[in-house]
Amino acid sequence: MNRRKFLATSGALLAAAQLPQSAQARALAYSDYAGYDAVGLAELIARGEVSAGEVLEAAIARAEAVNPVINAVVLKHYELARAAVSRGLPAGPLRGVPLLLKDLGVGLKGTVTTNGCRPFRDAVATENSTVVDRYLAAGMVIFGKTASPEFGQTPTTESLLWGLTRNPWDLAYSAGGSSGGAAAAVAAGIIPAAHASDGGGSIRIPASNCGLFGLKPSRGRLPFGPRALESWMGLSMMHVISRSVRDSAVLLDATQGAEAGSRVVPPVGAASYRAGLAAPLKPLRIALWDKNPFGLPVHADCQAALAHAAKLCADLGHRVEHAAPQLPVQEMFAGMGVMTGTGLLLSIRDREKALGRRIAPEELEKVNAHNLTKAAGYSAEDLYRARAAFDRGGRVLDEFFGTYDLILSPVMAIPPPKLGVMSLDQDYDKFVAGVINSSPFTAPYNMSGHPAMSVPLFWNSAGLPIGSQFAARFGDELTLLQLAAQLEQAAPWAARRPALETRKG
After folding, report:
1. Catalytic residue at 202?
2. What pLDDT sits at residue 19?
3. Among 84, 126, 313, 436, which has the highest number of CB atoms less than 10 A from its own CB?
4. Is 178 a catalytic residue?
5. CATH number for the domain running over 3-258+268-502
6. Is 208 a catalytic residue?
7. pLDDT digits over 194-241, tens only?
8. Residue 301 in 3-state DSSP?
9. Of 148, 159, 174, 178, which one is the catalytic site residue?
10. Could you tell me the pTM of the whole model?
């Protein structure tokens, strides 16, 4: 490692960032910073080749240079991060690695989390979320939050509060959602991995849209507390979107495990997921699920991506055959509407108590205002029926995984859509039709609790990434990560970057 080269300032980047001169002196050249994943940066810092402060300033410089174009980072905590570095960081496995949190459902004490919603624009967290404490204990440096649509209720990242988050591969297109800000930040090279959450595909969809790796863990793998032990009654799970598979494994090691009050804890898949990446993987039996469960078309580009992934798996010695679980999809998706609508209702009622006033419908985006009205009419029976449908689907999948090790399917049924197609600020029926047409494959695993991942193996003729989804038995993240590591070696994607600097905003 050439320290002089690594510490050389990048004139164009730093000038665009307009950082103070003292910060410019401490920042790394982006051409060098971008070449490392989170594990690689931590190793450089641990060897003393660079400092945590230098790495932080490189991340801030990159954010300031590209964020005006992509609109990924919506809350900046730069001074908090600099103060944390100055005080000294814990000697964790990712000491000094910068991190962005998603601006949804997570608390960093003393900072705002808006949930992408205007009535929450000044909602300050009074405590850290448990997962945030685990990031900090690992030595990570949190310096901001990334955009989310209002309450994460759509597979794009657009809101009336923060505006449009753009896909670094083509600025006219969606970065996906609801962790689109996280994915755009990683794809644009601001950081190598970003915190994300997934209640219906919100890690896997933006990972697919932005050419990144995204794993949704099994229900209960990561903590959601301390205030609530589940989000959307178990539908949503936190983890990260990353460029490398090993970053995802190391961050899973650093954050997994029960917290006080946890009742759903999946089987322990490995003493260390990072160490497990090196273990031999037996030939797998993989079911290829290529039909839209609602009977709608799957775009030819998504079919091509799926065929490419299947061939790669077969070339690696795995057995791939057409098969699909017979899920009660109508009942499951109807139940999801009940569950997410009730979660929205609870969040709004709690905020009204804090504000001391009612939140008017016009303060919410059109689809969410509609969902809130519907949710007020749901009964306890509706909730129980929703959960029963999820449980039936989970049983079907468990039985299916008695025959197959993994299920391979598209992430989305369409390529990344243009911005505006799935905005929450539109007619409700048009919105629902767009979501069903685009995103039928990810949510079943949120309802059942099984782990699933998006792997970036294909780009279409327009240069847009299209991921492939793999799902596994409950608690079996290890097999997913091992296969992802095989695919990463067979068809490397890390060096494939969007030419963002040449794009016009």
Report:
1. yes
2. 54
3. 313
4. yes
5. 3.90.1300.10
6. no
7. 999 999 999 999 999 999 999 999 999 999 999 888 989 899 999 999
8. helix
9. 178
10. 0.94
